[in-house]
Write a structure and sequence with these properties.
By secondary structure, the chain is of the alpha/beta class. The protein has helices at residues 22-30, 38-44, 61-73, 92-98, 115-123, 143-155, 173-181, 209-213, and strands spanning 6-11, 33-37, 52-56, 77-82, 106-110, 124-125, 131-135, 159-163, 190-195, 203-208, 221-225, 231-233, 236-238. The strands form 3 sheets. Strands 3-2-4-1-5 form a 5-stranded parallel β-sheet, with helices on both faces. A 5-stranded mixed β-sheet has the order 7-8-11-9-10, with helices on both faces. Strands 6-13-12 form a 3-stranded mixed β-sheet. The radius of gyration is 20 Å and the shape is elongated. The structure holds S-adenosyl-L-homocysteine. S-adenosyl-L-homocysteine (SAH) binds at residues 14-15, 82-85, 88-90, 114-115, 119, 163-164, 194-199, 219-222.
């Protein structure tokens, strides 16, 4: 009889061991094989000695997921790691699609602290009211739809958290997004960005929407655009919980 395997899909949080959940740590401890993008494997490997680590380069998501499924089907306990939460622009959806007909394969999805939350904590309390999370990557989403979502969120005075704000190929995407947002939001809207959350090189900055427009970011940055109530308190970005003065 073949031993049945188990596949954990684990969100490891923004980067530091301390930001992983206990459940994520326990799943990785129980796993024999850990599969993930090279950068994430490098972040965690010192804490999980003795595990077989399989790292794959970026952009090979489907291959990486299939590899994790195949290893688990051999009867092993396998963890597929993703940064932040595995369901937020992550791979848990793809895994579930690819493993659709693997009836005997046990799977467990373990949530992680997504960049909106870990970055929000670095900035202060920017997400104290309704917020929208939008990715500026048009790799898998048409630009027209991204623009529509930016407009709708800005029109509704939502706090907006931007993932994938720019990359070398998409250097001016943040600028374009800010131009759209400034059609509805004031130029002086309080904004913030956090780079390399939970990692050694962590950096944060707060600024107006107008100056965010001219700021160069990269793919390791998460951007926060406040609502009309968002303010700075001792250098921290704070959105009050309500619109009524209490
Ligand atoms: N699953 C991840 C998101 C993957 S999309 C999560 O839940 O956090 C990749 C984008 O997430 C990046 O372009 C960046 O905007 C954001 N991000 C992920 N990790 C980050 C980190 N440590 N620091 C800053 N931004 C991060």
């Amino acid at each position: 009889m073949t031993k049945s395997g188990k596949l954990y899909v684990v969100g490891i949080g923004p980067g530091s061991y301390e930001d992983m959940t206990i459940r994520a740590v326990k799943a990785l401890e129980k796993s024999e094989v850990i599969v993930g993008y090279t950068v994430y494997i490098d972040l965690i490997k010192e804490h999980f000695p003795g595990k077989e680590m399989i790292s794959t380069p970026m952009r090979r998501e489907q291959e990486r997921c299939q590899l994790a499924i195949d290893e688990a089907k051999k009867g092993k306990a396998v963890a597929m790691v993703c940064s932040g939460d595995s369901g937020v622009y992550g791979m848990s959806g793809l895994i579930l699609e690819l493993a659709r007909s693997e009836e005997g394969l046990e799977m467990e999805i373990i949530p992680g602290v997504t960049a909106a939350l870990s970055g929000g904590a670095v900035l202060g309390a920017p997400l104290g009211h309704d917020f929208a999370v939008i990715s500026l990557s048009d790799l898998l989403t048409p630009m027209g739809l991204i623009e529509k979502r930016l407009r709708a969120s800005a029109q509704a005075d939502m706090i907006i958290c931007l993932y994938n704000p720019s990359s070398r190929k998409r250097a001016d995407y943040l600028k374009k997004a800010c131009d759209i947002l400034m059609e509805y939001k004031s130029r002086s809207t309080v904004c913030g960005l956090v780079k390399n959350i939970g990692r050694k090189e962590e950096e944060m900055a707060v600024m107006t929407l107008e100056s965010l427009r001219d700021t160069q970011t990269d793919m390791f940055t998460t951007v926060f655009i406040g609502n009309s109530m968002t303010k700075l308190i001792n250098g921290r970005m704070v959105t009050p919980r309500g619109y009524k003065n209490v």
